[in-house]
Design brief:
mainly alpha; Arc Repressor Mutant, subunit A; 2 domains; 6 helices
Length: 160
């Protein structure tokens, strides 16, 4: 246990959370201004992922990619389906195994959302060099992996 006083250090987790919320909010405002979609920017990231996949997409595989609990992911998929952005269709004629496909409306949503994401990212990264951005990306990816490792460590620790 650390003996440092809690408030005397810079809290990276809080900073990352605040930055993430600001970026999502900025993207979301831009998408909402288009008045065409009621889904959030978080859904835009997911649709963008779907659009880029070469292989069939199945709901069960998405938990490890997006790190959502199963129930949250099921709610998001249902919302995207209800909004007409995706469809779940039988795969290889097997009615039990359904793949996720992006609809025409979903492709339009993706295009609008990606345009807004690029606009926000260009704005928030102005005056930051490509070297600095690369460093930030590398550090954040390491921190993400360390957080995953910590979750595994805690799980193992509880099992002892």
């Amino acid at each position: 246990m650390s003996t440092k006083e809690f408030d005397s250090r810079k809290h990276i987790g809080l900073l990352c959370d605040c930055v993430g919320r600001e970026v999502k909010s900025a993207i979301g405002r831009g998408v909402k201004e288009m008045d065409a979609y009621s889904t959030s920017s978080r859904h835009g990231w997911m649709i963008g992922y779907f659009v880029r996949q070469k292989e069939p997409i199945f709901q069960k595989d998405l938990e490890n990619i997006f790190h959502f609990p199963k129930s949250t992911l099921a709610d998001i998929i249902q919302l995207l389906e209800n909004e007409g952005l995706i469809e779940k269709v039988p795969f290889d004629g097997d009615g039990r195994k359904k793949q996720i496909i992006v609809t025409e409306k979903g492709l339009k949503f993706n295009q609008a959302t990606e345009g807004q994401i690029m606009e926000v990212e260009d704005f928030i990264t102005k005056d930051i060099s490509s070297e600095e951005l690369e460093t930030v990306s590398r550090v954040l990816e390491k921190m993400q992996q360390n957080a995953r490792n910590y979750k595994s460590y805690i799980k193992l620790k509880k099992e002892d």
